[in-house]
Amino acid sequence: MKSPVRYILPLLLLMTMACRKDLPQLNDPQNYVNANFNEVFDAFWTGMNNNYVFWDIDTVNWDQVYRTYKPLFAKLNVNDSNDVRKAYTYFKQMTSGLVDSHYNLSFADTWLADSGSISPAYLRKRSSPGFHAPISIFHFYDTLPKYYLDAGRRGFTNTPDKQYVAVAGTIQQNILYFFFNGFSLKTLFNTDTINGVKRVEQYFFDALANRTDLKGIIIDVRGNPGGDLADLNFLLGKMVTQPLHFGYTRSKLGNGRLDYSPWAPAYVAPQPGSKAVTIPIVMLADAWSVSMAEMTTMAVKALPNGHFVGERTWGANGPLTANKFYNGGQFSTSWLTSVYTSSLMFKYKDGNIYEGIGFSPDMTVPYNPAALKAGRDLQLEAALSLIH
User: Fold this and answer.
1) Are 84 and 109 within 8 A, CB to CB?
2) Domain 137-327+343-387: what homologous superfamily?
3) Per-residue pLDDT tens for 269-278?
């Protein structure tokens, strides 16, 4: 399975991080020759040792990984297809316990073309009690509007990487609802051409700005795998008139495993023309709400009128950006197409780190496939009851 989030996130959180170009460039993993499995292992192990940002909270003993797997890789022949597949198994074993829930390994070797990338968080969740598939996109696009919305708008936009779907409308005449399946709101809204998602966004923003009779707002990020961090200000910044402090970030400052920057506060910044929304704002999120979907839920929960209904989220909270900006985060080697890992560590304003754990709702409403099949959305109904 591919990593839950495949988008590069821009730098919007307030942070005091040093640029990578000002730091020593030692043992960059892409500089290893990788002509044999000794070098393949060393490139990966060193890259992780230097770039991985969660070593102070991760339970994996990275030095023990070296002692265990270095001799195993030394026995492998990089030109033997059976050994290449054995190396794939070793990579899966080495990374299985990593706390970073964005983490994803993809391989350049053609003998592994039929093997999926490795996502430790997905493999763990798939075998955990209560695991379920994401809610079908047709529930949000067809069923939910039919049974719950008074009026509104729905639309979709195709990009080279993804189909974006959005739905907005009112429920019981005075509760504003907004669903979207990926964070590219600002990009799609600022395009020169009208697109389906932009029309839905305009409907939502117009209602937010002009309706004076609204009793509550529901933002639905169930099944949302995340995306562009710019959307945090673009969406929530329209609902606050003062900077909203909701957490902290930190990065790596050097090649040492525990060389960290100080924690820096993270804010939602008010946008031009914003107004303070004081009616209840309810986030609907579930076990498939990842990354930006989680951070947006956390930010709403930091509001005095913010609530969260649904399930514990995925648990991938660390922002991502190209590692040219920081001395940590994603990297590649000549044998690994991508080691996809968080650039920054995020800590919520309550002082807790929810990486690998997920963010818990105020009101837990489990996934109910029988109700969904019958056209009932019990999580949405719980959000409505909370507003009332």
Assistant:
1) yes
2) 2-enoyl-CoA Hydratase; Chain A, domain 1 (3.90.226.10)
3) 999 999 999 9
